[in-house]
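Example for tutorial group B:
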């Protein structure tokens, strides 16, 4: 079992949101193992049916065990948002503490759930970070298979391929189709493949709409579904003007490199260092790591990309409260040179207060102009995640 970086406060009720298979239930069994718990698993069909038919069963159970329980755990609470009204009631009346997990924020939003108006703190759980994996970490394997915890229980490449294919199908079946989030499965299935192929790129809603045979607004709603079901996030374009930011298209990053390869149907092919696929997966991996570590460290950093009209680009810009902007280029190369730092040194002059970093697989720390070039593990620490 891996020691996870997520640190909910035991002094207060809390949510843990995360995609399927990120280890929410496993984490809570360990985190609350010394507590007396009432555990409600809404993934079990019989349990889901019981509480859907009669939500007040929760109150009956609590009243019958008031002096015997310290925590009430409700797993996958989005399957019955009505229970949150009772959770609210028992937090206020009985000072009970609740641990609530969810793999979709969409049903909670549609059910007008207000996340208990701050009475339960919000945490997120992601696939494993390189720090959580520790001594078992292997970069090539992480790019090839991703870092969902289940991957580390499998021995052969074929087992890993089959798991990722099944995971992609489970997402379609359980998170999307069975929850009636979409009306037609076929265009969404095609959208997932195209979204995986264009992962890390600026979204062109019109082009994707043509590929999927849908309209651009539908494609926008599909990306919203991906965010709401916690399998990825949008990276917005940087601009000091909020208004201008909103007029440019974002990029999208799936939350796991292995899932992307399953969706684009390349999971059986090997990623070779030096290839275009390797470089793209490396950038994807690093930005995911920063996104995850930002959440776990409660940093409140804001992440953006920068692309100019003449297609000059910075992979990542991080607004760090109380600190200079971090301008970041990501290269999978084992030896970087001045050509790799040229965009950073060009843009650096346009910012009054910024630091420039080049993260790569080069083991040497170098300073090239304004850019500090570092091995990516050390670079993440230097940036502050």
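The residue assignment follows.
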């Amino acid at each position: 079992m891996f020691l996870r970086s997520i640190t909910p406060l035991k002094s207060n009720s809390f949510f843990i949101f995360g995609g399927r298979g990120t280890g929410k239930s496993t984490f809570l069994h360990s985190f609350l193992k010394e507590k007396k718990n009432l555990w409600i698993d809404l993934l079990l069909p019989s349990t889901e049916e019981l509480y859907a038919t009669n939500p007040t069963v929760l109150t009956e159970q609590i009243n019958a065990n008031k002096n015997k329980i310290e925590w009430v755990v409700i797993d996958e609470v989005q399957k019955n948002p009505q229970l949150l009204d009772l959770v609210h009631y028992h937090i206020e009346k009985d000072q009970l503490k609740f641990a609530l997990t969810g793999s979709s924020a969409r049903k909670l939003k549609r059910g007008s759930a207000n996340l208990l108006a701050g009475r339960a703190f919000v945490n997120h759980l992601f696939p494993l970070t390189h720090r959580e994996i520790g001594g078992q970490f292997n970069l090539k394997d992480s790019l090839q298979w991703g870092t969902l915890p289940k991957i580390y229980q499998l021995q052969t490449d074929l087992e890993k391929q089959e798991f990722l294919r099944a995971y992609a199908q489970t997402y379609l079946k359980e998170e999307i189709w069975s929850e009636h989030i979409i009306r037609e499965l076929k265009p969404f299935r095609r959208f997932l493949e195209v979204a995986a192929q264009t992962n890390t790129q600026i979204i062109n809603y019109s082009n994707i709409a043509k590929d999927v045979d849908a309209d651009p607004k539908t494609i926008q709603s599909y990306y919203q579904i991906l965010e709401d079901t916690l399998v990825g996030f949008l990276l917005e374009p940087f601009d000091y003007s909020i208004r201008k930011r909103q007029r440019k298209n974002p990029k999208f990053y799936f939350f796991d490199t292995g899932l992307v390869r399953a969706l684009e149907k390349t999971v059986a092919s090997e990623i070779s260092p030096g290839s275009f696929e390797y470089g793209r997966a490396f950038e994807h991996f690093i930005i995911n790591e920063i996104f995850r570590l930002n959440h776990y460290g409660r940093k409140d950093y804001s992440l953006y990309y920068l692309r100019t009209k003449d297609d000059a680009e910075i992979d990542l810009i991080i607004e760090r409260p109380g600190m200079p902007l971090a301008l970041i280029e990501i290269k999978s190369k084992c030896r970087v040179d001045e050509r790799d730092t040229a965009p950073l040194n060009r843009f650096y002059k346009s910012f009054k207060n910024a630091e420039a970093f080049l993260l790569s697989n080069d083991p040497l720390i170098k300073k090239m102009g304004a850019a500090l070039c570092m091995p990516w593990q050390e670079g993440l620490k230097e940036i502050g995640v």
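The chain has three domains: 13-124, 130-278, 299-383. Compare this with the pattern of hydrophobic and polar residues in the output above.
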